[in-house]
């Protein structure tokens, strides 16, 4: 009988507040959405470095580290794209719950798919950042040649060309990387989120 109560103190898992107190910061998910070539990943990488320099523990999630790992069994069908974002949101939620500033950079082209991510992560922890760089600028940048292939019909359902991108109606932050330098964009983003993550 008594053995059931030998370690009552250890029955309770550490909570989010314990982790945030240790890290001296608040967990949050910064969800970057926008067209391919809009500058999402470039912004997220630069902001992560800037926040790290200021003493914040961050984690960047993007196609490179998600599609080659946890989602390497997914293709690009509509069902797989939804599952891709669902898994990303679940992982981002775990990071935020650990007190980590999480930067998620994914096209996530529809309101429905972003709404799903927000519902999983939680409204209070989800900050939508719309990188609103115009399509013509994104096409000019086209580092990987994806737009050219999409225009030729070599890539099916390419967002912005043969598949729609539904712009967020009321994002927490909207930023056009064609109208400001990277440094200016990062400074603006940091100023807007610093209160949310500061302990």
Automatic annotation (TrEMBL):
GO BP terms: namely: hydrogen sulfide biosynthetic process; sulfate assimilation via adenylyl sulfate reduction; sulfate assimilation, phosphoadenylyl sulfate reduction by phosphoadenylyl-sulfate reductase (thioredoxin)
Q: Per its record, what are the GO molecular function terms?
A: adenylylsulfate kinase activity; ATP binding; sulfate adenylyltransferase (ATP) activity
Where do the annotations place ATP binding?
A: 34-41
Instruction: Enumerate the active-site residues.
Output: 108 (phosphoserine intermediate)
- Residues in domain APS kinase? 27-176
Annotated Gene Ontology cellular component terms: cytoplasm
What InterPro entries does the annotation carry?
A: APS, APS_kinase_dom, P-loop_NTPase, Sulf_AdTrans/APS_kinase
Q: Would the keyword Kinase be found if you checked this record's keyword annotation?
A: yes
What is this protein's name?
Adenylyl-sulfate kinase
Source organism: Candidatus Caccoplasma merdipullorum
């Amino acid at each position: 009988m008594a053995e059931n109560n030998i370690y009552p103190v250890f029955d309770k898992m550490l909570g989010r507040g314990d982790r945030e107190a240790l890290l001296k910061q608040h967990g949050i998910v910064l969800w970057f959405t926008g067209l391919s070539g809009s500058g999402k990943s470039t912004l997220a990488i630069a902001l992560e470095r800037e926040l790290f320099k200021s003493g914040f523990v961050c984690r960047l999630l993007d196609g490179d580290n998600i599609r080659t790992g946890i989602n390497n069994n997914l293709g690009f069908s509509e069902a797989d794209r939804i599952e891709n974002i669902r898994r990303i949101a679940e992982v981002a939620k775990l990071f935020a719950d650990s007190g980590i500033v999480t930067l998620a950079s994914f096209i996530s082209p529809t309101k429905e798919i972003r709404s799903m991510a927000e519902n999983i992560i939680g409204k209070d922890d989800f900050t939508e950042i719309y990188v609103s760089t115009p399509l013509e600028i994104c096409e000019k940048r086209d580092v990987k040649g994806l737009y050219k292939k999409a225009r030729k019909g070599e890539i099916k359902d390419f967002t912005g060309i043969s598949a729609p991108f539904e712009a967020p109606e009321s994002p927490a932050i909207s930023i056009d990387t064609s109208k400001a330098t990277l440094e200016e964009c990062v400074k603006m983003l940091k100023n807007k989120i610093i209160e949310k993550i500061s302990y």
